[in-house]
Design brief:
Blueprint (H helix, E strand, L loop, with lengths): L10 H4 L2 H15 L23 E3 L14 H5 L5 E7 L7 E9 L8 H5 L5 E3 L14 E2 L1 H8 L13
Antiparallel strand pairs: 1-4, 2-3, 3-5
Length: 163
């Protein structure tokens, strides 16, 4: 098997002058273009429609948590950021619901799998992108905080069309 040896550098390549001139030309071209810097926090980033921020829980129009503690989101979460503890709900038309629902935002990778797998449409990816805290414990969101961030989603009537 024959090994290909690299070709010898030319005089221009050895003195690096063409490379330096190309780099300076590129810098000069970009110096006179309009800037795209935002003056955060006075100017906020316009979130695109398809943006996936942090996951949040939603409640229905009656103020009840839509989550039925099926554990699918906990099971499908790649970094294991979701923890659910279930309880029976005797006064409701569903068998169980979450007693505790926590999302560790330090682990969450905002992949959206939890939203896709949820059969009750109880968890959604919000448009929120500002995620700060003074301690690690502040970035573990409990059920109440997730519901406050998520708000209320009104049920849509699904009509099945038979063709």
């Amino acid at each position: 098997m024959l090994v290909q040896r690299p070709r010898a550098l030319t005089l221009g390549e050895r003195i690096y002058l063409p490379g330096i001139l190309k780099g300076m030309w590129l810098t000069l071209r970009h110096m006179f273009r309009p800037k795209v810097t935002l003056r955060y926090p006075e100017e906020k980033w316009q979130v695109p429609e398809y943006y996936r921020g942090i996951p949040v829980l939603v409640s229905d129009q009656d103020g009840r948590t839509k989550c039925v503690a099926c554990f699918l989101c906990q099971w499908v979460c790649p970094p294991r950021a979701i923890t659910i503890k279930a309880q029976e709900l005797p006064s409701s038309n569903v068998e169980k619901g979450p007693r505790e629902f926590e999302i560790n935002m330090l682990r969450c990778i905002m992949c959206g799998y939890c939203e896709e797998v949820c059969p009750e449409e109880a968890i959604f990816m919000s448009k929120e992108y500002e995620l700060t805290g003074r301690s690690r414990q502040e970035l573990i969101f409990d059920k109440e905080k997730l519901l406050r961030l998520g708000g209320t989603r009104f049920d849509t009537i699904k009509k099945w069309v038979h063709k």
